[in-house]
Automatic annotation (TrEMBL):
InterPro entries: Integrase_cat-core (IPR001584), RNaseH-like_sf (IPR012337), RNaseH_sf (IPR036397). One of its GO terms (molecular function) is nucleic acid binding. This is Integrase core domain-containing protein. Pfam families: rve. Signal peptide: none annotated. Gene3D superfamilies: Ribonuclease H-like superfamily/Ribonuclease H (3.30.420.10). Residues 19-89 form the Integrase catalytic domain. It comes from Bradyrhizobium yuanmingense. GO terms for biological process: DNA integration.
């Protein structure tokens, strides 16, 4: 019988996440995926300001490359200003 590997653990200690006190303190990125009835998959990039809980961007496409994500973040920075921190799970 083959044994499965153990859970990978982060190296070092993690800093506690501070509570955002003002807009643009922290933006959160997340990817959501689903499929339409004919089986084609699509992904949605969501960007949320953690202080105001405002959805800053929803970008839907069949494929979201790193370059596309960077381009959307650059566009948001031009419109809203640079956040102090960007987090992703």
């Amino acid at each position: 019988m083959r044994r499965r590997g153990g859970r990978k653990r982060a190296i070092g200690t993690r800093a506690l996440m501070t509570v955002p006190m003002a807009p643009n303190d922290r933006w959160s990125l997340d990817f959501v995926s689903d499929q339409v009835t004919d089986g084609r998959r699509f992904r949605i990039l969501t960007v949320v300001d953690d202080c105001t809980r405002e959805c800053l961007a929803l970008v839907a496409d069949t494929s979201l490359s790193g370059a596309r994500v960077a381009r959307e973040l650059d566009r948001l920075v031009m419109e809203r200003g640079k956040p102090k921190m960007v987090v992703s799970d």
